[in-house]
Specification:
The protein is an alpha/beta fold. It has 17 helices and ten strands. The strands form two sheets. Strands 1-10-9-7-8 form a five-stranded mixed sheet, sandwiched between helices. It has a five-stranded parallel sheet with strand order 3-2-4-5-6, sandwiched between helices. Helix 5 runs parallel beside helix 9. The chain is globular and about 60 Å long. It binds 6-O-phosphono-alpha-D-glucopyranose. The site of 6-O-phosphono-alpha-D-glucopyranose has 14 residues, from loops. It catalyses: alpha-D-glucose 6-phosphate = beta-D-fructose 6-phosphate. This is Glucose-6-phosphate isomerase.
Protein backbone atom coordinates (compact mmCIF):
# COMPACT_ATOMS: atom_id res chain seq x y z
CA UNK A 1 0.00 0.00 0.00
CA UNK A 2 1.33 3.46 -0.83
CA UNK A 3 1.97 5.81 2.10
CA UNK A 4 2.26 9.55 2.72
CA UNK A 5 4.70 11.24 5.07
CA UNK A 6 4.35 14.95 5.92
CA UNK A 7 6.91 15.15 8.78
CA UNK A 8 9.27 17.32 6.73
CA UNK A 9 6.71 20.10 6.43
CA UNK A 10 6.55 20.66 10.18
CA UNK A 11 9.46 23.07 10.32
CA UNK A 12 7.35 25.37 8.14
CA UNK A 13 3.76 24.74 9.19
CA UNK A 14 2.60 23.13 12.43
CA UNK A 15 1.05 19.71 12.82
CA UNK A 16 -1.72 21.36 14.85
CA UNK A 17 -2.62 23.65 11.96
CA UNK A 18 -2.77 20.72 9.54
CA UNK A 19 -4.92 18.71 11.92
CA UNK A 20 -7.12 21.77 12.48
CA UNK A 21 -8.47 21.10 8.95
CA UNK A 22 -10.25 18.00 10.21
CA UNK A 23 -13.73 19.57 10.32
CA UNK A 24 -13.34 21.38 7.00
CA UNK A 25 -12.04 18.24 5.32
CA UNK A 26 -14.96 16.26 6.69
CA UNK A 27 -17.34 18.84 5.25
CA UNK A 28 -15.56 18.63 1.88
CA UNK A 29 -15.74 14.82 1.97
CA UNK A 30 -19.47 14.99 2.68
CA UNK A 31 -20.02 17.46 -0.15
CA UNK A 32 -18.38 14.95 -2.48
CA UNK A 33 -20.33 12.02 -1.04
CA UNK A 34 -23.71 13.74 -1.03
CA UNK A 35 -23.14 15.75 -4.19
CA UNK A 36 -23.95 19.06 -2.52
CA UNK A 37 -20.86 21.02 -3.63
CA UNK A 38 -19.91 22.96 -6.75
CA UNK A 39 -19.58 20.90 -9.91
CA UNK A 40 -21.68 18.10 -8.45
CA UNK A 41 -22.66 16.77 -11.86
CA UNK A 42 -19.05 15.60 -12.31
CA UNK A 43 -18.68 13.16 -9.43
CA UNK A 44 -18.78 9.93 -11.42
CA UNK A 45 -15.12 9.24 -10.59
CA UNK A 46 -15.72 9.11 -6.84
CA UNK A 47 -16.89 5.51 -6.58
CA UNK A 48 -15.77 4.46 -10.03
CA UNK A 49 -13.08 1.92 -9.01
CA UNK A 50 -15.44 -0.13 -6.82
CA UNK A 51 -18.19 -0.04 -9.42
CA UNK A 52 -16.28 -1.32 -12.47
CA UNK A 53 -17.73 -4.69 -13.42
CA UNK A 54 -15.92 -7.83 -14.55
CA UNK A 55 -17.97 -7.75 -17.77
CA UNK A 56 -16.79 -4.22 -18.57
CA UNK A 57 -13.16 -5.21 -18.03
CA UNK A 58 -13.68 -8.31 -20.18
CA UNK A 59 -15.11 -6.17 -22.99
CA UNK A 60 -12.10 -3.84 -22.79
CA UNK A 61 -9.67 -6.76 -22.78
CA UNK A 62 -11.37 -8.38 -25.77
CA UNK A 63 -11.14 -5.14 -27.76
CA UNK A 64 -7.53 -4.71 -26.69
CA UNK A 65 -6.83 -8.21 -27.99
CA UNK A 66 -8.25 -7.34 -31.42
CA UNK A 67 -5.87 -4.37 -31.62
CA UNK A 68 -2.95 -6.46 -30.35
CA UNK A 69 -3.65 -9.19 -32.89
CA UNK A 70 -3.96 -6.81 -35.82
CA UNK A 71 -1.52 -3.96 -35.15
CA UNK A 72 2.22 -3.44 -34.79
CA UNK A 73 1.57 0.13 -33.72
CA UNK A 74 -1.41 1.70 -31.99
CA UNK A 75 -1.90 5.47 -31.99
CA UNK A 76 -3.68 6.94 -29.00
CA UNK A 77 -5.25 10.13 -30.35
CA UNK A 78 -6.31 12.46 -27.54
CA UNK A 79 -5.31 15.52 -25.53
CA UNK A 80 -5.40 16.51 -21.86
CA UNK A 81 -7.49 14.08 -19.88
CA UNK A 82 -8.04 12.07 -23.03
CA UNK A 83 -4.40 10.95 -23.20
CA UNK A 84 -2.38 11.83 -20.12
CA UNK A 85 -3.76 9.09 -17.86
CA UNK A 86 -3.08 6.34 -20.37
CA UNK A 87 0.40 7.66 -21.11
CA UNK A 88 1.19 8.08 -17.40
CA UNK A 89 0.35 4.47 -16.60
CA UNK A 90 1.84 2.95 -19.75
CA UNK A 91 5.17 4.76 -19.39
CA UNK A 92 5.37 4.05 -15.64
CA UNK A 93 5.01 0.32 -16.31
CA UNK A 94 6.89 -0.08 -19.59
CA UNK A 95 10.51 -0.95 -20.23
CA UNK A 96 12.36 2.32 -20.84
CA UNK A 97 13.42 1.13 -24.30
CA UNK A 98 10.30 -0.72 -25.26
CA UNK A 99 10.08 0.68 -28.80
CA UNK A 100 13.64 -0.42 -29.54
CA UNK A 101 13.19 -4.00 -28.38
CA UNK A 102 13.27 -6.60 -31.11
CA UNK A 103 10.82 -8.99 -29.49
CA UNK A 104 7.58 -7.19 -28.83
CA UNK A 105 4.83 -8.54 -26.64
CA UNK A 106 2.43 -5.69 -27.38
CA UNK A 107 2.00 -3.05 -30.07
CA UNK A 108 4.17 0.07 -29.92
CA UNK A 109 2.09 2.85 -28.40
CA UNK A 110 2.35 6.28 -29.98
CA UNK A 111 0.49 9.43 -28.98
CA UNK A 112 -1.02 12.02 -31.30
CA UNK A 113 -3.75 14.62 -31.24
CA UNK A 114 -2.08 16.44 -28.34
CA UNK A 115 -0.36 19.09 -30.45
CA UNK A 116 -0.82 20.86 -33.80
CA UNK A 117 2.75 20.50 -34.99
CA UNK A 118 2.92 19.92 -38.74
CA UNK A 119 6.35 18.31 -38.42
CA UNK A 120 5.14 15.95 -35.68
CA UNK A 121 2.18 14.83 -37.77
CA UNK A 122 4.21 14.60 -40.98
CA UNK A 123 6.90 12.52 -39.32
CA UNK A 124 4.28 10.31 -37.70
CA UNK A 125 2.46 9.65 -40.96
CA UNK A 126 5.82 8.93 -42.64
CA UNK A 127 6.76 6.44 -39.94
CA UNK A 128 3.38 4.71 -40.24
CA UNK A 129 3.68 4.23 -44.01
CA UNK A 130 4.85 0.63 -43.81
CA UNK A 131 3.22 -0.22 -40.48
CA UNK A 132 0.13 -2.19 -39.64
CA UNK A 133 -1.39 0.40 -37.37
CA UNK A 134 -4.62 1.04 -35.50
CA UNK A 135 -6.07 4.08 -33.78
CA UNK A 136 -7.84 4.70 -30.49
CA UNK A 137 -9.63 8.01 -30.99
CA UNK A 138 -10.38 9.55 -27.61
CA UNK A 139 -12.36 12.72 -27.06
CA UNK A 140 -15.09 13.35 -24.52
CA UNK A 141 -16.53 16.30 -26.40
CA UNK A 142 -15.69 14.67 -29.70
CA UNK A 143 -14.86 18.07 -31.14
CA UNK A 144 -11.40 18.97 -29.80
CA UNK A 145 -9.47 20.47 -32.72
CA UNK A 146 -6.06 18.94 -31.99
CA UNK A 147 -7.46 15.42 -31.75
CA UNK A 148 -9.96 15.75 -34.60
CA UNK A 149 -7.24 17.02 -36.92
CA UNK A 150 -4.86 14.16 -36.12
CA UNK A 151 -7.69 11.64 -36.42
CA UNK A 152 -8.73 12.96 -39.82
CA UNK A 153 -5.19 12.26 -41.08
CA UNK A 154 -4.85 8.90 -39.37
CA UNK A 155 -8.27 7.62 -40.43
CA UNK A 156 -7.54 8.38 -44.07
CA UNK A 157 -4.09 6.80 -43.91
CA UNK A 158 -5.39 3.71 -42.15
CA UNK A 159 -8.16 3.23 -44.71
CA UNK A 160 -5.79 3.86 -47.64
CA UNK A 161 -3.16 1.48 -46.33
CA UNK A 162 -5.24 -1.27 -44.81
CA UNK A 163 -8.58 -1.00 -46.61
CA UNK A 164 -11.90 0.13 -45.20
CA UNK A 165 -12.83 -3.25 -43.72
CA UNK A 166 -9.63 -3.68 -41.72
CA UNK A 167 -9.66 -0.01 -40.72
CA UNK A 168 -13.09 -0.57 -39.23
CA UNK A 169 -11.64 -3.34 -37.08
CA UNK A 170 -8.56 -1.46 -35.85
CA UNK A 171 -10.12 1.94 -35.17
CA UNK A 172 -11.85 2.29 -31.81
CA UNK A 173 -13.61 5.42 -30.58
CA UNK A 174 -13.95 6.47 -26.95
CA UNK A 175 -16.34 9.38 -26.69
CA UNK A 176 -19.70 10.69 -25.52
CA UNK A 177 -22.73 8.39 -25.77
CA UNK A 178 -24.57 10.71 -28.13
CA UNK A 179 -22.90 14.04 -28.88
CA UNK A 180 -19.90 15.18 -30.90
CA UNK A 181 -18.25 14.54 -34.24
CA UNK A 182 -16.28 11.53 -32.94
CA UNK A 183 -19.58 9.82 -32.06
CA UNK A 184 -21.13 10.67 -35.44
CA UNK A 185 -18.11 9.29 -37.31
CA UNK A 186 -17.91 6.14 -35.19
CA UNK A 187 -21.59 5.37 -35.67
CA UNK A 188 -21.46 6.04 -39.39
CA UNK A 189 -18.31 3.96 -39.93
CA UNK A 190 -19.36 1.20 -37.54
CA UNK A 191 -16.36 1.40 -35.17
CA UNK A 192 -16.30 -0.35 -31.85
CA UNK A 193 -16.97 2.38 -29.27
CA UNK A 194 -16.72 2.90 -25.54
CA UNK A 195 -18.58 5.63 -23.68
CA UNK A 196 -17.06 8.28 -21.44
CA UNK A 197 -19.71 8.78 -18.77
CA UNK A 198 -21.24 12.27 -18.67
CA UNK A 199 -20.40 12.66 -15.00
CA UNK A 200 -16.66 11.94 -15.34
CA UNK A 201 -14.55 14.91 -16.42
CA UNK A 202 -11.55 14.37 -18.70
CA UNK A 203 -8.89 14.76 -16.03
CA UNK A 204 -10.69 12.24 -13.77
CA UNK A 205 -11.24 9.69 -16.56
CA UNK A 206 -8.15 7.47 -16.39
CA UNK A 207 -10.16 4.58 -14.91
CA UNK A 208 -12.79 4.75 -17.65
CA UNK A 209 -12.08 3.23 -21.10
CA UNK A 210 -10.12 6.46 -21.83
CA UNK A 211 -7.24 5.06 -19.80
CA UNK A 212 -8.12 1.40 -19.48
CA UNK A 213 -8.27 0.49 -23.19
CA UNK A 214 -4.83 1.87 -24.18
CA UNK A 215 -3.32 0.45 -20.97
CA UNK A 216 -4.73 -3.00 -21.81
CA UNK A 217 -3.47 -2.73 -25.42
CA UNK A 218 0.00 -1.92 -24.10
CA UNK A 219 -0.10 -5.24 -22.26
CA UNK A 220 -0.83 -4.22 -18.69
CA UNK A 221 -3.20 -5.71 -16.17
CA UNK A 222 -6.18 -3.39 -15.88
CA UNK A 223 -7.80 -5.61 -13.24
CA UNK A 224 -4.89 -5.00 -10.88
CA UNK A 225 -4.88 -1.28 -11.69
CA UNK A 226 -8.57 -1.02 -10.82
CA UNK A 227 -8.10 -3.20 -7.71
CA UNK A 228 -5.39 -0.81 -6.46
CA UNK A 229 -7.65 2.16 -7.08
CA UNK A 230 -10.54 0.42 -5.30
CA UNK A 231 -8.31 -0.25 -2.29
CA UNK A 232 -7.43 3.45 -2.18
CA UNK A 233 -11.11 4.38 -2.57
CA UNK A 234 -11.65 2.53 0.73
CA UNK A 235 -8.55 3.98 2.40
CA UNK A 236 -9.64 7.54 1.56
CA UNK A 237 -13.33 7.00 2.31
CA UNK A 238 -15.56 9.44 4.15
CA UNK A 239 -15.66 7.08 7.13
CA UNK A 240 -11.85 6.91 7.54
CA UNK A 241 -10.65 9.23 10.35
CA UNK A 242 -8.58 12.25 9.31
CA UNK A 243 -5.28 11.01 10.75
CA UNK A 244 -5.57 7.70 8.86
CA UNK A 245 -6.83 9.16 5.58
CA UNK A 246 -4.00 9.95 3.16
CA UNK A 247 -6.14 12.04 0.76
CA UNK A 248 -7.43 14.14 3.67
CA UNK A 249 -3.93 14.73 5.05
CA UNK A 250 -2.43 15.59 1.65
CA UNK A 251 -5.26 18.03 0.85
CA UNK A 252 -5.00 19.72 4.25
CA UNK A 253 -1.20 19.96 4.21
CA UNK A 254 -0.94 21.52 0.75
CA UNK A 255 -3.68 24.02 1.57
CA UNK A 256 -1.93 25.01 4.79
CA UNK A 257 1.35 25.38 2.91
CA UNK A 258 -0.43 27.52 0.31
CA UNK A 259 -1.84 29.75 3.05
CA UNK A 260 1.66 30.14 4.48
CA UNK A 261 2.89 31.57 1.15
CA UNK A 262 4.04 28.43 -0.64
CA UNK A 263 2.31 29.04 -3.97
CA UNK A 264 4.04 26.40 -6.09
CA UNK A 265 3.98 22.64 -5.57
CA UNK A 266 6.67 20.68 -7.35
CA UNK A 267 6.00 17.00 -7.90
CA UNK A 268 9.32 15.20 -7.80
CA UNK A 269 10.38 11.75 -8.94
CA UNK A 270 13.69 9.95 -8.98
CA UNK A 271 12.59 7.56 -11.71
CA UNK A 272 12.17 8.81 -15.30
CA UNK A 273 9.29 6.40 -15.90
CA UNK A 274 7.16 8.63 -13.69
CA UNK A 275 7.53 11.69 -15.92
CA UNK A 276 4.03 11.37 -17.35
CA UNK A 277 2.48 10.68 -13.96
CA UNK A 278 3.60 14.24 -13.20
CA UNK A 279 2.11 15.51 -16.45
CA UNK A 280 -1.21 13.83 -15.57
CA UNK A 281 -1.04 15.24 -12.03
CA UNK A 282 -0.38 18.75 -13.37
CA UNK A 283 -3.56 18.70 -15.43
CA UNK A 284 -5.54 17.21 -12.54
CA UNK A 285 -4.53 19.91 -10.07
CA UNK A 286 -3.96 22.79 -12.48
CA UNK A 287 -7.37 22.61 -14.15
CA UNK A 288 -9.14 21.78 -10.90
CA UNK A 289 -7.70 24.53 -8.71
CA UNK A 290 -6.36 27.30 -10.94
CA UNK A 291 -9.38 29.60 -11.08
CA UNK A 292 -11.00 32.61 -9.40
CA UNK A 293 -7.46 34.05 -9.25
CA UNK A 294 -6.45 31.30 -6.82
CA UNK A 295 -4.68 27.97 -6.77
CA UNK A 296 -1.30 26.35 -6.17
CA UNK A 297 0.75 26.26 -9.39
CA UNK A 298 1.55 22.59 -10.06
CA UNK A 299 5.05 22.05 -11.43
CA UNK A 300 7.23 18.98 -11.79
CA UNK A 301 10.83 17.85 -12.07
CA UNK A 302 12.59 14.57 -12.82
CA UNK A 303 15.52 13.99 -10.46
CA UNK A 304 18.38 13.51 -10.39
CA UNK A 305 18.31 14.82 -14.02
CA UNK A 306 16.81 18.19 -13.11
CA UNK A 307 19.00 18.61 -10.02
CA UNK A 308 21.57 19.64 -12.61
CA UNK A 309 19.28 22.29 -14.06
CA UNK A 310 16.41 23.31 -11.77
CA UNK A 311 18.22 22.18 -8.61
CA UNK A 312 19.79 25.61 -8.12
CA UNK A 313 16.43 27.39 -8.23
CA UNK A 314 14.83 24.92 -5.87
CA UNK A 315 17.73 25.16 -3.39
CA UNK A 316 18.13 28.94 -3.37
CA UNK A 317 15.44 30.70 -5.43
CA UNK A 318 12.34 32.47 -4.13
CA UNK A 319 11.01 30.59 -1.11
CA UNK A 320 7.47 30.11 -2.42
CA UNK A 321 7.72 26.42 -3.24
CA UNK A 322 7.17 23.06 -1.63
CA UNK A 323 7.93 19.60 -2.94
CA UNK A 324 5.95 16.37 -3.03
CA UNK A 325 8.31 13.51 -3.75
CA UNK A 326 7.13 10.22 -5.23
CA UNK A 327 9.56 7.60 -4.06
CA UNK A 328 9.63 4.04 -5.40
CA UNK A 329 10.80 1.65 -2.69
CA UNK A 330 11.72 -1.43 -4.69
CA UNK A 331 13.08 -1.35 -8.23
CA UNK A 332 12.38 -4.12 -10.75
CA UNK A 333 15.93 -5.03 -11.65
CA UNK A 334 19.30 -5.54 -10.01
CA UNK A 335 22.46 -3.81 -11.25
CA UNK A 336 25.60 -3.47 -9.17
CA UNK A 337 28.39 -0.97 -9.71
CA UNK A 338 31.40 -3.02 -10.90
CA UNK A 339 34.84 -2.92 -9.22
CA UNK A 340 37.54 -1.43 -11.44
CA UNK A 341 41.20 -2.22 -10.73
CA UNK A 342 42.51 1.07 -12.17
CA UNK A 343 39.75 3.15 -10.52
CA UNK A 344 40.48 6.01 -12.91
CA UNK A 345 37.04 7.51 -12.28
CA UNK A 346 37.46 7.20 -8.50
CA UNK A 347 34.18 5.33 -8.19
CA UNK A 348 35.45 2.27 -6.33
CA UNK A 349 33.79 3.56 -3.17
CA UNK A 350 30.55 2.55 -4.89
CA UNK A 351 31.76 -0.86 -6.10
CA UNK A 352 29.40 -3.65 -5.14
CA UNK A 353 26.56 -1.26 -4.33
CA UNK A 354 23.26 -1.36 -6.17
CA UNK A 355 22.62 1.58 -8.52
CA UNK A 356 19.36 2.07 -6.65
CA UNK A 357 21.27 2.57 -3.39
CA UNK A 358 23.10 5.47 -5.03
CA UNK A 359 19.77 6.85 -6.26
CA UNK A 360 18.22 6.49 -2.81
CA UNK A 361 21.09 8.42 -1.23
CA UNK A 362 20.66 11.12 -3.88
CA UNK A 363 17.01 11.22 -2.87
CA UNK A 364 17.70 11.43 0.86
CA UNK A 365 20.49 13.95 0.38
CA UNK A 366 18.22 16.10 -1.77
CA UNK A 367 15.40 16.02 0.73
CA UNK A 368 17.68 17.10 3.57
CA UNK A 369 19.30 19.84 1.45
CA UNK A 370 15.98 21.22 0.22
CA UNK A 371 14.39 21.20 3.67
CA UNK A 372 17.51 22.99 5.02
CA UNK A 373 17.17 25.42 2.12
CA UNK A 374 13.59 26.32 3.10
CA UNK A 375 11.54 23.94 0.96
CA UNK A 376 8.87 21.94 2.83
CA UNK A 377 8.81 18.35 1.69
CA UNK A 378 6.12 15.69 1.52
CA UNK A 379 6.84 12.12 0.52
CA UNK A 380 4.66 9.51 -1.11
CA UNK A 381 6.16 6.03 -1.06
CA UNK A 382 5.16 3.43 -3.64
CA UNK A 383 6.27 -0.09 -2.68
CA UNK A 384 6.97 -0.76 -6.36
CA UNK A 385 6.01 0.34 -9.87
CA UNK A 386 3.15 -2.11 -10.31
CA UNK A 387 -0.34 -1.80 -11.74
CA UNK A 388 -1.75 -2.10 -8.22
CA UNK A 389 0.38 0.66 -6.70
CA UNK A 390 -0.15 2.98 -9.67
CA UNK A 391 -3.91 2.42 -9.38
CA UNK A 392 -3.68 3.42 -5.71
CA UNK A 393 -1.65 6.51 -6.56
CA UNK A 394 -4.08 7.73 -9.23
CA UNK A 395 -7.12 7.46 -7.03
CA UNK A 396 -5.28 8.99 -4.06
CA UNK A 397 -4.49 12.08 -6.14
CA UNK A 398 -8.05 12.28 -7.53
CA UNK A 399 -9.69 12.07 -4.14
CA UNK A 400 -7.27 14.54 -2.57
CA UNK A 401 -7.90 16.90 -5.50
CA UNK A 402 -11.66 16.88 -4.94
CA UNK A 403 -11.18 17.61 -1.22
CA UNK A 404 -8.47 20.20 -1.85
CA UNK A 405 -10.57 22.10 -4.40
CA UNK A 406 -13.43 22.38 -1.92
CA UNK A 407 -11.02 23.54 0.81
CA UNK A 408 -9.92 26.27 -1.59
CA UNK A 409 -13.60 27.07 -2.24
CA UNK A 410 -13.44 26.69 -6.01
CA UNK A 411 -15.38 24.41 -8.34
CA UNK A 412 -12.77 21.68 -8.87
CA UNK A 413 -14.67 20.12 -11.76
CA UNK A 414 -14.92 22.83 -14.41
CA UNK A 415 -12.31 24.52 -16.63
CA UNK A 416 -13.88 27.67 -18.10
CA UNK A 417 -10.49 29.30 -18.66
CA UNK A 418 -9.48 26.76 -21.28
CA UNK A 419 -12.00 28.20 -23.75
CA UNK A 420 -10.27 31.59 -24.18
CA UNK A 421 -7.52 30.39 -26.51
CA UNK A 422 -9.92 28.20 -28.46
CA UNK A 423 -12.25 31.14 -29.13
CA UNK A 424 -9.37 33.26 -30.44
CA UNK A 425 -7.95 30.42 -32.54
CA UNK A 426 -11.34 29.74 -34.16
CA UNK A 427 -11.84 33.46 -34.78
CA UNK A 428 -8.40 33.71 -36.41
CA UNK A 429 -9.11 30.64 -38.55
CA UNK A 430 -12.56 31.94 -39.61
CA UNK A 431 -14.45 28.96 -38.25
CA UNK A 432 -18.12 29.14 -39.28
CA UNK A 433 -20.13 30.57 -36.40
CA UNK A 434 -17.27 32.82 -35.27
CA UNK A 435 -17.89 35.70 -37.71
CA UNK A 436 -18.32 38.36 -35.02
CA UNK A 437 -15.28 37.16 -33.08
CA UNK A 438 -13.25 37.10 -36.32
CA UNK A 439 -14.04 40.74 -37.00
CA UNK A 440 -13.27 41.75 -33.42
CA UNK A 441 -9.95 39.90 -33.33
CA UNK A 442 -8.84 41.20 -36.72
CA UNK A 443 -9.38 44.73 -35.40
CA UNK A 444 -6.97 43.97 -32.56
CA UNK A 445 -4.10 42.78 -34.74
O1 LIG B 1 -11.77 14.78 -24.37
P1 LIG B 1 -11.86 16.10 -25.04
O2 LIG B 1 -13.27 16.65 -25.07
O3 LIG B 1 -11.26 16.06 -26.42
O4 LIG B 1 -11.04 17.15 -24.20
C1 LIG B 1 -9.68 17.05 -24.01
C2 LIG B 1 -9.17 18.10 -23.05
O5 LIG B 1 -9.26 19.37 -23.61
C3 LIG B 1 -10.09 20.36 -23.03
O6 LIG B 1 -9.86 21.59 -23.63
C4 LIG B 1 -9.98 20.45 -21.51
O7 LIG B 1 -9.24 21.53 -21.06
C5 LIG B 1 -9.48 19.21 -20.86
O8 LIG B 1 -10.02 19.10 -19.57
C6 LIG B 1 -9.79 17.98 -21.67
O9 LIG B 1 -9.29 16.85 -21.00
Amino acid sequence: MISLNIEKTFGFISKEKVFAYETEVKAAQEMLEKGTGKGNDFLGWLHLPSSISKEHLADLKATAQVLKDNCEVVIVAGIGGSYLGARAVIEALSNSFTWLQEKKTAPIMIYAGHNISEDYLFELTEYLKDKKFGVINISKSGTTTETALAFRLLKKQCEDQRGKETAKKVIVAITDAKKGAARVTADKEGYKTFIIPDNVGGRFSVLTPVGLLPIAVAGFDIEKLVAGAAEMEKACGCDVPFDKNPAAIYAATRNELYKSGKKIEILVNFCPKLHYVSEWWKQLYGESEGKDNKGIFPASVDFSTDLHSMGQWIQEGERTIFETVISVEKVDHKLEVPFDEANLDGLNFLAGKRVDEVNKMAELGTQLAHVDGGVPNMRIVLPELSEYNIGELLYFFEKACGISGYLLEVNPFNQPGVEAYKKNMFALLNKPGYEEESKAIQAKL
